[in-house]
Design brief:
With 406 residues, the protein is mainly beta. The chain has a single domain, classed as Outer membrane protein transport protein (OMPP1/FadL/TodX) (Porin, Beta Barrel). It is built from 2 helices and 18 strands. A hairpin with a 4-residue loop joins strand 4 and strand 5. The two termini are 25 Å apart.
């Protein structure tokens, strides 16, 4: 007697309901994104599968999908794939003297991986590496006749191409080149109350205030390798440092001023390493470590950064005629970061799941992250946030020999 195939819609419905509740919500509005000494809040390059495992999984090899931080492992992909990640944050800062709610929606990365007949993969990536998203309006204004506010917007974005090749069944190598484009704005605005008892200044047209706009360009190479065995794997990835060419323009009430300048600012070299261990066919343990060699500046705002994260994944059976819940992946993890701005600590915990979409390898991965972030030295600010991430991965047989197509 045959059994009917169980489709994922009953399971996906509450998942999409959860995403719908968060997608229009606030994105991370950390005060770190307002510090002009940095580039904003760094955006994780992990997809939702790895985010659900404590933002680990650098060395965790799977059969399809991209890996922005370790492209070498895509050399073992068995199909061409397309992937897009969506992030939305609900953020609250525990400070009663300021208001800083900003609405935005983030697509931190999009990737396309072409798998050839050889153990060779060509990848094209887009990634948002840093994000500025912060607004500040004092509850008590400096004067009763004017409302002042401050906003920081923009970020640093990457376009990258990679080539991954596996010269042996146990070794994969990758080289890549990343192009950087930056767009940042710092806006100080003022709104006057038009009180007729005040002088002409206060009854004038509302002013947009000063805007500092910054455009950045740069590029740097990357390299990575992965060693895999039956029950364990190791991955290493690194980037070289680079200098960004930055052009700063100041505008006042919509008029471009003569105050323009050009400068360079450095991005550090980075090194990441990860290990994965499979005690069973369906079980994976992962541990990652990352280092960013930021130079200390005279103000003490910028400092070297590192992170460590670990997690666990239980992979479903994947048998066609079993109940759908038995095919789902379950994930969890913990992590710590010492961030590159203002000696800031971040502790976080993650949960995640993987939802197969059909029989051909398409996946929807969902992760939930709770983070607690605060300044280390004076503890003047602290914040908690919830981040929802979803990665949709679609696979294709493009480029595969006919004998491999299913």
């Amino acid at each position: 007697m045959s059994r009917s195939v169980q489709y994922p819609f009953p399971v996906l419905a509450p998942t999409f309901a959860l995403l719908a509740a968060f997608l229009p919500a606030r994105s991370e509005t950390s005060p770190l994104s307002a510090l002009s000494q940095g580039y904003g809040v760094e955006v994780s390059g992990q997809n939702a599968r790895e985010k659900g495992m404590g933002e680990a999984g650098l060395a965790s090899v799977n059969k399809q999908g991209p890996s922005l931080l370790n492209p070498s492992r895509t050399a073992w992909n068995d199909k061409t794939s397309f992937s897009a990640t969506f992030d939305s944050d609900l953020d609250w800062i525990q400070d009663a003297d300021r208001s800083n709610r900003t609405t935005s929606f983030v697509i931190p990365d999009i990737a396309l991986n072409f798998q050839t007949r050889l153990p060779l993969n060509v990848g094209v990536y887009y990634r948002q590496r840093f994000q500025r998203d912060f607004s500040f309006t004092p509850v008590t204004q400096a004067t009763p006749d004017v409302m002042q506010s401050f906003s920081a917007q923009g970020g640093l974005y990457e376009l990258a191409g990679t080539v991954a090749y596996a010269p042996a069944h146990w070794l994969a190598l990758s080289l890549g080149y990343n192009f950087l484009i930056g767009r940042e704005r710092f806006i100080e605005s003022a709104k006057f109350d038009n009180n007729p008892g005040n002088d002409t200044l206060f009854n004038a047209e509302n002013l947009k205030g000063d805007t500092i706009s910054i455009r950045s360009t740069g590029a740097y190479p990357t390299a990575s390798l992965t060693i895999r065995q039956k029950s364990w794997s190791i991955g290493v990835a690194g980037t070289l440092s680079t200098d960004l060419d930055r052009t700063t323009t100041r505008t006042v009430t919509g008029l471009v001023s003569d105050e323009q300048r050009k400068e360079t600012r450095s991005l550090p070299w980075t090194l990441q390493a990860g290990a994965a261990y499979k005690p069973g066919v369906r079980h994976t343990l992962a541990l990652d470590f990352g280092w960013e060699a930021w130079d200390k500046d005279p103000t003490g705002i910028v400092n070297p950064a590192f992170r460590i994260g670990g997690g666990y994944e239980f992979q479903g059976s994947g048998t066609t005629y079993e109940a759908y819940y038995s095919k789902m992946a379950i994930r969890g993890g913990l992590g710590y970061e010492s961030q590159y701005l203002d000696k800031t600590d971040l502790y976080y915990a993650t949960l995640g799941t993987g939802l197969p979409l059909g029989r051909h390898g398409n996946m929807l991965d969902v992760a939930l992250k709770y983070g607690h972030r605060s300044g280390v030295e004076n503890n003047l600010w602290t914040e908690d946030f919830l981040k929802v991430s979803a990665t949709l991965t679609g696979v294709s047989v493009w480029g595969q020999p006919i004998r491999k197509r299913r």
